[in-house]
Amino acid sequence: MWGGRFSRGPAAIMEEINASIDIDRRLWREDIAGSKAHVSMLAAAGIITEADRTAIEKGLDQIAEEIESGAFQFSKTLEDIHMNIEARLKDIIGEPAGRLHTARSRNDQVATDFRLWVRRACDETQTALTILMRALAAKAADHANAVMPGFTHLQTAQPVTLGHHLLAYVEMFARDASRFADARKRMNESPLGAAALAGTAFPIDRTATATALGFDRPCANSLDAVSSRDFAMEALAAASLTATHLSRLAEELVLWTSPHFGFASLSDKFSTGSSIMPQKRNPDAAELVRAKAGRIIASLNNLLIVMKGLPLAYAKDMQEDKAATFEGFDALALALAATAGMINDMTPHRDAMKEAATRGYSTATDIADWLVRALNTPFRDAHHVTGAIVALAERKGVTLDKLSLADMRSIDPRITQDVYSVLSVEASAASRVSYGGTAPDNVKREANRWLAQNMTA
Ligand code: ARG
Question: What is the value of pTM for the model shown?
Answer without folding.
Answer: 0.94
